[in-house]
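Late entry, evening session. Most of the bench is empty. Finally got around to the prediction I had been postponing all week. Sequence below, unchanged from the version circulated by S.P.
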Amino acid sequence: MTRLNRRDWLRGALAGAAALPLLDAHRAEGQAADKPPVRLVVFATPNGTRNTLFWPTQGAGGMTFPEYTKPLEPFAEKLLFLNGIRHCQAVVGDNGFNGGLNGSEHARGMGGLLTARPLGTGSFKSFMATSGWGSGISLDQHLANILDPATKFKTLELGVQVRDAQVRGRICYKGADQPIPPREDPKDVFAALFGDLNPDPAGDPQLDKLRAQRKSIFDLTTSEIKRLQARLGADDRAKLEQQITAIRDIEVRLTAQSGSGGGGNNSGLNCAPPTGNLDIDLSSDATLPETGRLQMDLATAALACDQTRILTLQWNYAESEHLFPFLGLSRNHHAISHDWQGTTGFTEYGKIHVWFAEQLAYFLEKLDSVPEGDGTLLDNTVVFWGSEIGESTSHDLTRMPYVLAGKAGGQLRTGRVWDSVSSPKDNNQLLVSLAHLMGAEQVTSFGDPSGATGPLPDLLV
């Protein structure tokens, strides 16, 4: 793993998405000084939706939001609901409970979300079907290969209590049968992003001192920060302070989670790579909210500090059986996803769906709070929210609950519902569109040949 010295770390972690003009020389190679890069985030949540409660209605005054997506209303002008996207025929099959193909709808939808390809053969069991891994590269990895961004991480895969290590728990693939596991421990993610300060074999007195005293990473860089601030204008100083505050906040929360209960010094994060016990009990469903918030905050920091421009954030796993005790629920998510309207389970499923929408709203708010260029980090990002299936009761794969958030650097025409229900378009075309938004316009097709080629129509300004 590439190691950063303290000065390199400071440049990356405090640059605030490369928004500070005086740090242009340290930006990722090839990025124009006056135009922030476009980022891609995939935000995946499990167990589909109910169409009647998901899609906004479009009127002359804008969108009217139903129950399931109501938490996103504050970001209406930066949202694009994609109503009428289906998986390609090779993934859909006959659209029954197994589709006549490898894997259940949950497994096929998960494997095809970013690959637009069917699953291979294998022994992974999902419902009454078996399958292997995904049969092709996922879009995030394809973009990393094409664009080759000069960031610390070409792509960054994060997970929130994914747990499942089989096909239902993977959306990213380096190629056929090459799944990429997400990083699920926030402490590990922080160490990977901002704690790469291990001493060389000869040792480093400053780093040894840092670990011994458990100080914040900033405690040994105060003079460097002050020198940098002195060179900045008022606006850029404010941006720098915002990034410092955000990273300090993550440090404090991670340290609070790792308290030993033995009266140890908890005044700051131990910046050594974490070992031993997990900071958060990732096996407990009760810790899902805090784990998710930390991962979203780390994702925001990774994007803002230009550590990566391609990021996936996967919640749970396809066909997830997580419980949600913090919502007062006792039945698992997948079980209640099949309950019909008028039942207790239907109401409980709605609570979970709304909660996931609230998490997305939190993430969008974090991105939108980071000033960048003439707008915000959200304005220069496209966030793709999707699930592995559509209508949860029928395991439908022909009308997927997909939403794009952000402006992708001003390219997307947002604030509306893109409606193609009467003439469904393939997921392959959406992935081509995302590639184009990221600057890879040479991508004209993606995924299985049974899917349509070219980008989706009528997305751009």
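Two things to note before I forget:
The radius of gyration is 22 Å.
The chain has one domain: 6-322+332-355+367-401+414-422+433-437.
Will write this up properly tomorrow.
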